[in-house]
Amino acid sequence: MSNVDIILVSYNTAEYTVRAIESVFEQTKETDVNLIVVDNASTDNSVALIQASFPDVEVIQTGKNLGFAGGVNVGAKAGSAEYVLLLNPDTVILDGAVDKLVAFAEDNIKSGIWGGVTLNNDMSLNPNNARARISFSTLLFSATGLSKIFKSSCYFNHDNYGCWDRKSDKDVDVITGCFFLTPRALWESLEGLDETFFMYAEEADYCIRAMKLGYQPRVSADAKIIHHGGVSEVNLSGKMIKLLKGKSQFIKKHEPTWKQPIFKGLLLAHVFNKYISSSLISLVKKEKLAVRDEWRTIFQQRKDWLAGYQ
C-alpha cells in the first residue's frame, strides 16, 4: 500500500477544511494517508473545530500567515511518506480520487507530478485543474479577451487548454496546487515550493523546475474533486492582486530580461481592459459598480503587483 502525506493549509476556512478532511477519510481506502493541517494563524475557529472533529489529525499552528508555499513546506517537513499531496481546504474528494491519483502516478511514474480534474459544486467542469506555461500568446489572448470569447479553442485559450474536455488523460505544463501529487524524492531535490511566491504561481514554478529535470506533469481524467476556489479571499481585488503578483514573480524568475517588460505590459493591459469594460458596463447596470471599483483598485495598485514578491 502506497503512503501519502496530505498537506492542507488552513486560513479562516474552518467549515471547508473539516468538509475536505471528512471527504479524504470517507473516500480513501487503498492508500495509507497521513493528513497534516497547517494553520496560518486563522482568526476564526479553524484550529478548535479541526482538533475537535479529528483528534488524530496533526495540526501545526504557524503563529503567522506564511502564505500557501510557506505553509505547505512546513507541513511537508513534518511528514515522511513516499508521496506528498497538496490539497486545498476548499475541496471535496470524490469517488476515491486520492486512491485513483496515486494508482495513476504509479502507472505514469516518469511524470513526476500528477493532478486530477476539478469540478464546481454543481458538478460542472471547473477547467482550472491545469494550465499552460505563461507565454506571449497566452498573455496576449487574455489581455484582448480572445481567450474568453473563444474559450473552447486550444489556440486562443491555450492557457486553460480550452479544447480539452477533461475526459482523457493529458500531459500539461502546470498542475494546479489544489490537488497536486509529487514524489517526496523529487520534492526534496527541488527543496519544495519556492517561498518567494507567497500565494499563486508557486506550483507553476515547481512544475517548470521539474520539467527542466526531464519530468512531464500529467493529469488523470478519472481522479475528480470539487474545488470551490478562493474562499479565503473576501473580495476580487484581494485575490487578483496576489494572483498578479505571483505571475509577475514567475515572469521575473523564469523569463529572460528582454521579455519581462513585454509580458508585464500584457498583464497590465489585461487589467486595464477589465477596468474599462467594467466601467462601461456599470453605466448601464448600476449593480456592477462594485465590480468596477474592484478593478479600479487592482489597476491603481499596479506598481505593487508588477514588482512581484520582493
- Give the DSSP E fraction (strand runs of 2 or more residues): 15-25%
**Main β-sheet description:** 10 strands, mixed
Shape: globular
How would you name the CATH homologous superfamily of the largest domain? Answer: Spore Coat Polysaccharide Biosynthesis Protein SpsA, Chain A
Continuous helix count: 12
Annotated CATH topology of the largest domain = Spore Coat Polysaccharide Biosynthesis Protein SpsA, Chain A
- CATH top-level class of the largest domain: Alpha Beta
CATH architectural group of the largest domain: Alpha-Beta Complex
> How many separate domains?
2
Number of strands: 12
Radius of gyration computed on alpha carbons: 19 Å
CA distance, first residue to last residue:
43 Å
Outline of the structure:
This protein is α/β, with parallel strands linked by helices. The chain has helices spanning 14-27, 46-53, 67-77, 97-107, 136-143, 146-149, 184-189, 202-211, 236-254, 260-284, 289-300, 302-306, and strands spanning 3-10, 32-39, 58-61, 83-87, 91-93, 114-119, 125-126, 130-131, 170-171, 174-175, 179-183, 218-227.
Description of the molecule:
With 310 residues, this protein is of the alpha/beta class. The chain folds into two domains: 3-129 and 166-227, Spore Coat Polysaccharide Biosynthesis Protein SpsA, Chain A (Alpha-Beta Complex); 236-306, no CATH class. The protein contains twelve helices and twelve strands. The strands form two sheets. Strands 1, 2, 3, 4, 5, 6, 7, 9, 11 and 12 form a ten-stranded mixed sheet that branches. Helix 1 (14-27) runs parallel beside helix 2 (46-53) and helix 10 (260-284) runs antiparallel to helix 11. It is globular, with a radius of gyration of 19 Å. The N and C termini lie far apart (43 Å).
